[in-house]
Amino acid sequence: VDTPRFSISSSSPMKSLGSSTTPAPTKAQNYKNLIGLMGELLFIEFMYNEHGVDLSPFWHSEGSASKLDFVCPRVSFEVKTTANDSMCFTIKHNQLFDTSGEVYLVAASINEDNAGRTLDSVISSLLENTEYCNSLQFAENIEKEKRRISPVEMKTKRFSLKRINAYNTKDTNPFVVIPDCVEDLSYRLNLLPFLCTDISNITILPK
What we know:
Order of helices and strands: EHEEEHEHHHEHE
Radius of gyration: 18 Å
Oligomer: single chain
Mean pLDDT: 88
Helix content: 25-40%
Strand content: 15-25%
Largest sheet: 4 strands, mixed
Shape: globular
Low-confidence stretches: 6-20
Strand order of the largest sheet: 2-3-5-6
Structural class: alpha+beta
């Protein structure tokens, strides 16, 4: 039986007591934000095109207070995006596994590709579509997320979607019991040993 592989990080960044402004994102953070938003928007597009479900009303529905990316009536989704072959993702344990209800971890695999699409073109495609993604809240959330990304990379970096896999968090929890003395546990979780769920079998909206 394959055993999930993970590594735990106990370090936490220190904030300067004399600083009252948020530092500008580093190049690495800009890229992380770029592919993260790309993955979430491609998931919205994928779910509508392949399964006829408009997830846009449930995306970041509580703004910055949203614990998960999508909180739907029957299930919730947290999207992790990778632009390489790795299926290892940084997990905040309390976010995924201490949440009531049915939660799925979605792994969006994208590839940097000159023949692909820019984030700017994906955003335009969604906002201009008359069939879904046409709420004011969705447009406002887009604008908020764009502020965290380099305007240049948003218009120049091109990606194509390779695959989207969903994993029920009940099947991927590597720590069934967490000692009371452990708080804010985060780690790198390798999803390769786990079986993904057929998304068509997930009941997202009430019938």
